[in-house]
Amino acid sequence: MCANLSCSSPFKGEVTHSVILRVNRAFTEITGYTSEEAVGQTPRLLSSGRHDAAFYAAMWESLQSTGAWQGEIWNRRKNGDVFPERLTITAVKGDDGEVTVARFGGDEFMVMLGELAVDKAESATQAGIVAEKIRATLAEPYVLKLKHEVQAETTVEHRCTTSIGVVLFIDHQARTEEIIKWADMAMYQAKEAGGNLIRFYDSTGE
């Protein structure tokens, strides 16, 4: 499942074993590369030539040891323009140290559910229940405290809406990048329908 909080729209991409598996629309708008052009390529696709091998070695060491890296990096668009970017790569882990949520950007996450029912209808129901729990939890209001120099502290109630796309797959019959792409498509259908919704990917609607 892909969940996109409507608070912002950051650049993001997922990289595993130094290969790009997925990019979002913001990636295409910023870099000029389509998903088809980027998926399967290595991050060298965006290399600006402004960072040496030691820079990237330190980045990957941080990711492997702490599960996170944050910093400023220079990348290159498809048209050759070099641009600065502040990038954060993180993994969200449970109490047991396992990764249950993967973070792809400031406001986009992925959840993979295992051991669902073999029956497609039943597994869809199970996935839908989990998706609704996520949506409902994130829809709960939270309070922000605002400090002022000349007046007393005030509080503001804030709410976030969540658009969730769900795709079902069995025994890895599709490639990882295809599954993620389908979940992303369903998520954008939820957003385009008004947001704060859950949509299942339908292969007949491509």
Which terms summarize this structure?
single chain, 206 residues, alpha+beta, Beta-Lactamase, seven-stranded mixed sheet, 5 helices, 30% helix, disordered N terminus
Q: What structural class do you assign from the helix and strand content?
A: alpha+beta
- How many helical stretches? 5
Please summarize the sheet with the most strands.
Answer: 7 strands, mixed
The number of strands is: 11
CATH class membership? Alpha Beta
Q: Strand order of the main beta sheet, please? A: 4-5-6-7-1-10-11
Q: What percent of the residues sit in helical stretches (DSSP H or I)?
A: 25-40%
Rounded average pLDDT: 76
In oligomeric terms, what are we looking at? single chain
- What is the radius of gyration computed over CA atoms, rounded to a whole number of angstroms? 19 Å
CATH topology, by name, is Beta-Lactamase
The overall number of domains is 1
Could you name the ranges where pLDDT drops below 50 across 5 or more consecutive residues? 1-18
**Beta-strand percent range:** 25-35%
What string gives the helices and strands in order? EEEHHHEEEEHEEEHE
Task: Return the CATH architecture.
Answer: 2-Layer Sandwich
Quote the distance from N terminus to C terminus.
18 Å
Approximate shape: globular
CATH homologous superfamily name? PAS domain
